[in-house]
Amino acid sequence: MLRDMVAIGDKVELILMDRNEDTEKKTLKSKVLDFPNYTSVIIAMPIIKGRIIPLSVGDKYSLRFFSQTGLYECKGLITDRSNDDKIYILTVEITSALEKYQRRQFFRLSCVLDLDYYIASEAELSLRYKLKQNAFKTPEDKQACLDALEQCNREWLMGIVVDLSGGGIRLMSESVHEIGNTIQMRIQFTSKVNLKTDYISGVIISADKMTNRNGFYEYRAQFKEVLKEDREAIIKYIFEEEIKQRTKAKK
Fold this sequence. Notes:
Elements: H1 2-5, E1 11-17, E2 24-37, E3 40-44, E4 47-48, E5 51-52, E6 60-67, E7 70-84, E8 87-94, E9 99-100, E10 109-119, H2 122-133, H3 139-150, E11 157-164, E12 168-173, E13 182-187, E14 200-209, E15 217-223, H4 228-250
Antiparallel strand pairs: 1-2, 1-6, 2-3, 3-8, 4-5, 6-7, 7-8, 7-9, 10-11, 10-13, 11-12, 12-15, 13-14, 14-15
Helix pairs in contact: 2-3
Organism: Anaerocolumna chitinilytica
Protein name: Flagellar protein
Domain PilZ: 151-240
């Protein structure tokens, strides 16, 4: 049952899939506001860069809920939209079973790697989405978008990667973040890893205050929209490091 797994205030993504339902075309962020009955959920109308994204009654989306017990997915149909005390809301009927979000399983490497990262703002995410769509009328419009992206505020933070796989990382940090935040990462690998992009992008899927290290928090981040070549380079690094660790253990 939805309300047994998801709570009011949890973040939710509305995902528009392509015709074959194997590629995400568009992802919008919202949060859970209420449960009017056992088969529906009320969520906030998505907002990007301060602008409300008006979704229509009859639209169908995949829903991905970020709850304290994990990630869950289901299908949904928008059945109503309204304005409740100046808050634009959507009523979504759940049209499929709620399932634990199944992520591809990768071998995990225990490690200690320095990490530079920042939490991407809604403004930056909106600009990156525009660039991905590449629906600019003129080259000047695209350049203006690139220039605006360069001007986005980025507060670089430090963390430590303690667990690495081809699907994501587990990290420690003294900074407080929320489940659903998009994180841009530069991992300081101990040997050369040829990545085609400057950052590795991910989304925080769990957050816990550490009990054995005062002032530290532990996060799990799932890689998001990572190039196939970059993921393969990370997996190659993990494989090589695992061989090194086993060789040392035998000595």
